[in-house]
Specification:
Layout lengths: L11 H11 L16 E4 L2 E5 L12 H14 L7 H5 L2 H14 L3 E5 L2 H12 L5 E5 L4 H9 L4 E4 L4 H14 L10 E6 L11 H10 L3 E5 L14 H4 L8 E5 L9 E5 L1 H10 L1 H4 L6 H16 L2 H19 L11 E7 L1 H13 L2 E2 L2 E2 L9 E6 L6 H17 L6
């Protein structure tokens, strides 16, 4: 009997991938075969890494390694279930208590990632009777969290407090459905914006929100461990404790491990436990992860010299890039973009840096606008002066080669 030949219903994927390659927007995965660190083995080659979010070098810190190993020996490899069934361990509760004290809030609930924290909290606390007001450059996880909510939303131009105030005034004047007042107006912003490295004008945002009776939510993924006393984040950096309703953070950047958290009131934590879908339908963090995160917070408190070193390296690297003639945009933090413009040049720049022994990834559309491609760099506390010198030499040479600087 002759077999019937069926066409591949997913054949369009090949066409779309070919188009991405044609536009220089296709990004293959680079494979690391060493520990994460300032020097790593990527695609079989030892390079200086400027592409990690490991701000303080904690991914390989001996205290975190030991905490993870001890937890595996005591509690095993996994938690076995979601936390509402049988997956809550004493380590999870201890980590959340420590994080709440660290952030200066009543309570904390941890999630599997910063992304799931945002997609958990936003649709849980907002609905049709509410309004979300979002910065135009907020992280994709915030955008997806808003999409999962039934609440209407408005966008204000990036970091424009005047425009935010206008949006809030309009919202209060018009109300929601049938002109009824919104139950909740939630203003959402990143603390540090992950592509440009600028800091949100949080004092102005909070003042505008208070003027119109709105609540503020800050995603501090790239501010945790970087800004504020001992890395407590942007709320602490600006002295706004008690005036920001919700703080979202990550445990996979400066903390050096994996996960996310929501910090706020006890009532917020209790409601998230009852209703946040990523929390309810995902297995909890393995013991090793929770224990290593807990140890990282203690390192924040006991080894403040790591943050001092991070900022010293940041100031040096950023100023030298500018001296060489590179455009680093509006960055105020260790996230230092080298603005290139088009994606093809960004890809070539990154490849030539890799040839020169520096791993610095390009960021292209759709992560940024088509004409805003850049090389995104982050120096860490673990980079030595020699590593920074070698990296700057490579940037100088490749920049002149590609005509981006004149030397």
């Amino acid at each position: 009997m002759a077999t019937t030949r069926h066409e591949n219903p997913l054949a369009f994927l090949d066409e779309e991938l070919a188009e991405l390659r044609r536009q220089n927007l296709y990004r293959p995965l680079r494979v690391m075969s060493s520990a994460q660190g300032p020097v790593a083995t990527v695609d079989g080659r030892e390079v200086i890494s400027l592409s990690s979010n490991d701000y303080l070098g904690l991914t390989h810190h001996p205290r975190l390694r030991q905490a993870a190993l001890d937890a595996v020996r005591q509690f095993g490899a996994g938690s076995g279930a979601v936390r509402t069934i049988a997956g809550t361990m004493s380590l999870h509760e201890e980590l959340e208590d420590e994080l709440a004290r660290f952030k200066g809030t009543e309570a904390v609930l941890t999630f599997q990632s910063g992304f799931t924290a945002n997609t958990g909290v936003i649709p849980t606390i907002t609905g049709e009777a509410d309004l979300i007001v979002s910065d135009g450059l907020n992280h994709a996880s915030i955008i997806d969290g808003m999409r999962l909510s039934k609440a209407p939303r408005v966008i204000y131009p990036h970091a424009d407090v005047g425009a935010l105030r206008e949006k809030l005034a309009e919202a209060r004047a018009k109300g929601g459905a049938e002109g009824k007042p919104h139950r909740l107006i939630l203003v959402v912003t990143d603390g540090v914006f992950s592509m440009d490295g600028d800091i949100a004008p949080l004092p102005g945002i909070v003042e505008a929100a208070e003027e119109f009776g709105a609540a503020v939510m800050v995603d501090d993924a790239h501010a945790s461990g970087v800004l504020g006393k001992n890395g407590r984040g942007s709320v602490d950096h600006f002295g706004l404790h008690g005036r920001v309703a919700i703080q979202v953070g990550t445990l996979s950047k400066a903390v050096g491990v994996l996960g996310g958290y929501v910090a706020g009131s006890q009532a917020l934590r209790d409601m998230l436990i009852q209703r946040a879908r990523p929390f309810l339908f995902s297995t909890s963090a393995p013991p090793a992860v929770a224990a290593a995160c807990l140890e990282a917070i203690r390192v924040f408190l006991e080894e403040p010299e790591l943050i001092d070193r991070l900022w010293a390296n940041t100031r040096r690297f950023k100023s030298e890039l500018r001296r060489l003639g590179f455009d680093t945009g509006v960055s105020e933090t260790p996230i230092t973009p080298v603005m290139v413009g088009d994606s093809a040049t960004a890809q070539r720049f990154s490849n030539r840096l890799f040839d020169a022994g520096v791993f610095a990834q390009p960021v292209v559309y759709p992560t940024v606008a088509l004409d805003k491609a850049r090389i995104r760099t982050i120096v860490s506390a673990a980079h030595s002066d020699e590593m920074l010198d070698r990296s700057l030499t490579a940037f100088d040479s490749v920049g002149r080669e590609l005509g981006l600087t004149t030397g």
